[in-house]
């Protein structure tokens, strides 16, 4: 066991500390804290985990939070940490000196800033009843009697499920809408036919809809899926664009913060003839930008997201947007374009996408990222390939966690 002083948080939410044997990256401490940690050797650095906090950060948040909340600090203190984390990722991984615009805080949903913002959450079922979280990087189940990160419309559903007998299930998923003040539930695992009656009873209790998904090694809702009861989707307001959301496909979990990002994205790009969005989900970003282009193509792999996007487009009367259900790696077929927008999963851009961008060289690339490390890697490569980074701003979509979103614009 060693005593360490945590200097700062780095990408991945790990605390960086210096030791006589080299740099250590530890899980569980906050910048400025003195901790006792156990360490082990990784390739070229030490890694570890905090066992005890010896001198806590004066603004440490002391109320109970779920284990995913790895930044337990009073809200205003979280923001400079995220700003620095993105800035340092860009310098260390992207090898770029560039001054970021100041972090955009999450808008408040209640009188308590930073809490009650998430409109989606997944829980495991504790063997002794109630909902539980899997501790990050382990299989340990931690019971959670209350989750102050989920938005208010999800709270009654959380209570209901906590006391409901839900045998033979692996996970429950919640997706709510602040706009509609309603919630959908997803059941994962077991057999759909065992949950028909439960689903109907939940709808009678006020749940808007229930969907079942088979447990699949490919991931949540990547196997067989069945709609069990109630409505198939909800509407949510993302910065003035009403977009459909459902439990089984991706949508941003902090709608007000995402709405601000989409609005700023629409302002920072130069208008043009054609825009292509890769990793488009249901195309909320394209819907925000469509009026600035003659033609917009949104490419997304998930069929449910494409279906929702097409319905949203028609409901909103947007006529210059087409969806293509395909892999982002086919981007070459849709270029040239004046703008390519990307919002990839945490792994960042697929090598084929990066190569396609560098070959076809669209004039502008709008890059939205949920992982600063892979974003910085990709930005570094695009800059090496001739682009200039023009604008980048961290957005706090995920208060009380180390996660941070980035909006950025590159051009030739
Ligand atoms: C971070 S989400 C962004 C969605 C959307 N921009 C939004 O804000 O709602 C990433 C999206 O990429 C999609 N996706 C993942 N891999 C893909 C691929 N290889 N080709 C196309 N879409 C992909 C996922 O289904 C998901 O909808």
UniProtKB/TrEMBL annotation:
Membrane-traversing stretches: none
Entry-linked Pfam families: tRNA_U5-meth_tr
Keyword Transferase: yes
PROSITE patterns to which the protein is assigned, alphabetical: SAM_MT_RNA_M5U (PS51687), TRAM (PS50926), TRMA_1 (PS01230)
Catalytic residues (UniProt): 370 (nucleophile), 370
Residues reported in the UniProt entry to bind S-adenosyl-L-methionine: 252, 279, 300, 343
A single BP term in Gene Ontology: rRNA base methylation
Xref: PANTHER family: RNA M5U METHYLTRANSFERASE, TRNA (URACIL(54)-C(5))-METHYLTRANSFERASE
Similarity-based family: Belongs to the class I-like SAM-binding methyltransferase superfamily. RNA M5U methyltransferase family.
Name of the molecule in the record: (Uracil-5)-methyltransferase
Organism of origin: Meiothermus ruber (strain ATCC 35948 / DSM 1279 / VKM B-1258 / 21)
């Amino acid at each position: 066991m060693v005593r360490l002083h945590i200097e700062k948080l780095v990408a991945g939410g790990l605390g960086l500390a210096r030791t006589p044997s080299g740099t250590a990256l530890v899980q569980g401490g906050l910048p400025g804290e003195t901790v006792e940690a156990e360490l082990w050797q990784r390739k070229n650095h030490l890694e570890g985990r905090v066992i005890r906090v010896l001198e806590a950060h004066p603004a440490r948040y002391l109320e109970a939070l779920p284990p995913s909340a790895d930044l337990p600090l009073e809200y205003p203190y979280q923001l400079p940490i995220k700003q620095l984390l993105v800035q340092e990722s860009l310098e260390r991984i992207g090898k770029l000196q560039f001054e970021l615009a100041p972090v955009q805080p999450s808008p408040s949903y209640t009188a308590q800033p930073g809490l009650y913002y998430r409109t989606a959450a997944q829980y495991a079922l504790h063997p002794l009843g109630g909902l539980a979280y899997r501790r990050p990087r382990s299989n340990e189940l931690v019971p959670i009697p209350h989750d102050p990160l989920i938005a208010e419309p999800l709270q009654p559903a959380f209570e209901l499920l906590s006391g409901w007998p839900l045998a033979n299930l692996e996970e429950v998923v919640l997706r709510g809408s602040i706009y509609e003040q309603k919630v959908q539930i997803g059941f994962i695992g077991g057999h759909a036919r065992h949950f028909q009656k439960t689903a109907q009873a939940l709808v009678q209790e006020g749940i808007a809809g229930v969907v079942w998904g088979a447990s699949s090694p490919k991931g949540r809702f990547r196997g067989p899926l069945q709609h069990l009861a109630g409505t198939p989707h909800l509407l949510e307001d993302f910065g003035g664009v009403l977009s459909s959301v459902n439990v089984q496909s991706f949508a941003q979990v902090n709608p007000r913060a995402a709405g601000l990002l989409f609005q700023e994205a629409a302002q920072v790009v130069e208008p043009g003839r054609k825009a292509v969005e890769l990793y488009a989900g249901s195309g909320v970003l394209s819907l925000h930008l469509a009026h600035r282009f003659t033609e917009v193509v949104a490419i997304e792999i998930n069929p449910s997201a494409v279906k929702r996007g097409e319905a949203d487009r028609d409901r909103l009367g947007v006529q210059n947007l087409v969806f293509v259900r395909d892999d982002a790696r086919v981007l070459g077929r849709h270029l040239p374009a004046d703008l390519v927008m990307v919002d990839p999963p945490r792994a960042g851009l697929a090598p084929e996408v990066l190569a396609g961008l560098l070959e076809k060289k669209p004039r502008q690339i709008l890059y939205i990222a949920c992982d600063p490390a892979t974003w910085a890697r990709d930005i570094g490569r695009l800059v090496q390939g001739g682009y200039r980074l023009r604008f980048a701003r961290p957005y706090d979509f995920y208060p009380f966690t180390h996660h941070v979103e980035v909006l950025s614009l590159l051009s030739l």
